Protein 1
Amino acid sequence: MQPAHPPRYTGTRIQTTDLAHVTYKFLSIASIFIALCALSTGASALKISKKKVSTAQAVRQPTAPGPAYAEREDVMQAADDIAARRNLDTEWVRQAIGQSNYLPQVARFIQPPPAGTAKNWRVYRGRFIDATRINAGVRFWQDNRDTLARAEQETGVPADIIVGIIGVETIYGQQMGTFRVIDALATLAFDFPASHPRALERSAFFKNELEQFLSLSHRTNIDPLALRGSYAGAMGMPQFMPSSWVKYAVDFDGDSRIDLFNSPADVIGSVANYFKAFNWQPGMPTQYPVAFDTQKLDMDALMAPDILPTFSVASFAAKGAVLEGAALEHKGPLALIELQNGDAPPSYVAGTENFYAITRYNWSSYYAMAVIELGREVASAMNR
């Protein structure tokens, strides 16, 4: 959601432009998710006093946690700074952060993939477009048909895109993460691996997310020690980072609170609101088929902007990209999207501004295509 959220950690599940990164992390944590499905922990079930942090029963972690951050003087000073900036009770913040633990596996998962790890769209697609997700998506759509229709009417975001996001992120709430959110955020805020090529930027990002999380917990009377999510601190069915929860989550079921763990209506409305905020264009396709004129092809120029829509239809054609049918009437900018297939030739599509909007949830063209294709498969199954 990820996560506006230029860093790759909102919405959502964690964001990355690198499919190899996603593949490597998925293999690292797949056994964890299979063995330990996340327990739904909605806001309504986690009431505490704002003046005291609960010493709630330990939340089960995938592996044993490391030292508590109460032992670190620099972390306690950071807690004081957060309390002052956010006008929070200092002791409350100290207790919350002090009872969080360093998680060595989180520090491992956040590292870039090994050099030379190949990208493969077909493998990636098979991981997310499968019978489990399609069948769960059909049930989710059937159970929430009216809410999805209302969200589409109010925001212009199609139901299949919303369904695709929630399915890719958590299989409609089946896998919302097993890490205590505060542990994950504290680990990445105070002990982000120095060997990471963007360590300073990422550490600053997670410090802000930790601050947002504590402020959100205090304001909504939620126990900050109780919520669980991804290894990057993303939460709920749509895997929003705390900053995305604050900016984009909405009370879509009208019960005067926002619950992204247990309220499908709030989840649907929040995902739709997220895309509306990132300029979703109602009625615009996400991508078009594309071929190439080898006599005119300037692949370097076409690939230079990456996933950012830059080319008009005319300039696209001038550089050797061949469009047909409705694509020739497209009025907005386009991007050439490359999906590598290991040793096989890559696949290509012409991505629109709506394709780019999906990548604001997760900065990966592979992710965006998985969302699009899962949503379409679920829609097709609904009509069978």
Protein 2
Amino acid sequence: MHADSTLQIDLDAIASNAAVLHDLCDRQAMCGVLKADAYGLGAHAIAPVLEAAGWSLLAVHRIDEALALLDHVSVPLLVLGPVRDLTPLHPLAAPLGDGRVQLVIQDGAALDDVRGLAHAMSRPIGVHLEVDTGMGRGMHLNDAANMLRGMLADPRLVTHGVMSHFTAAADRERTRSQFADFDRMLLPMRRRLPVTCRRHIAATTAALRDAEVRGDMVRIGLGWAGHAVALDDQMHLTGAVRWQASIASVRAVPSGTAVGYGGRHVCARDARLAMVPVGYADGLPVQATGQRLTVRDAKGEAIGTAPIVGTVAMDQVMIDVTHLSAAVDVGTSVEVFGPETFSAFAASMGLQPHHLLTNIGPRVHRRLISSAGATRTHAVAAG
């Protein structure tokens, strides 16, 4: 299959990260967050890797994301987003009834919906109560305790968790304050909570920065891909993602040549310019002008780096390869980012890794690699 560019996902690196993170979090319960098709990397392939590493829950945002994973894992799936007006005939009803899927309760209307569905199916449904500690999501702290009491007493529900979300995980003081509010709300009922009901509020950054705020389970998103936002030390995590393309054309231009829309770059010397077929429609940020991409030879060895010159276009960018070997020509590999450079590439443009990764579009083919099997390519899931 012809592909102008490829996003390579290393499943062995993800497996290693899953084990490392489990150890760093003192072997407590782990929830792998696989929203948006695992941030565009392929949830169907990554979910079994996390399950094999002993992670006990996987989280998605939408109903269709949960349905797509049911045949790939046996651990329960948590739907983080709001779910309304389900009937016993809905495809999600059966996995809710047998415990393969759990729901998040954000308000009284959601609770009434779930109770009604459980009554209609004559089967209890697994739920997590979301509490607002500063994000504007979930039940207000003043109302959460009474709602939780009612949920625990209702035979139509199995309350598996009470959750919240930190607003600024890199801010230790604010994070501890949020956790204190969360824990204070739960304090009167701690003895009534079943052992299977877990407190969870910490995502990757908070979980790795501060053991005091982990609760009973941590939710890990891009940490499993080897990237932890706002951490100086990546804690032995291995980058699992590489974006590469091939030069489509090379041309020599004289000094004074204007490049790209608006002619914002003018060559100060005679130059060799190479066209790389990735642009903002593929998820390369428009602010990538000036970023240096790594050029590699046929053996994968780095020849050097070349800057993006001119405005990032919808389908392509130009890089200046004048200073590189004349061997750089059509078909030469160009790396937009690799496992070691991904976080720095995003940060240099003022982006978080999540922002960069989830914007990479379906025209960029995903290639899964693993020592356990042959390289295989898959299409990104539809949004």
Protein 3
Amino acid sequence: MTARLEGLEVPLHRSLVEPMLLAGLPRTVALVLWTSVGAFAFGLHQIWVLPLGIGVHLAAAAATRADPYVLDIVALALGAQKRLDP
């Protein structure tokens, strides 16, 4: 039913339609995660935070691999109103 018209196609670069990832995570999530892990591990000398940060990173990267927008949806759900107002 849909006929393609010649000359009306525009090539898009892959970076325009895919989210920007940093080590498998969305850039903002990776920066917040590793900044806070670095502050706890190196600033407060809580070395036990490093394996925890690696585990959180691997879990979030696996979730992002399944759906690139899952962490955006989680952020929206956490910020959403918890009850319905009449």
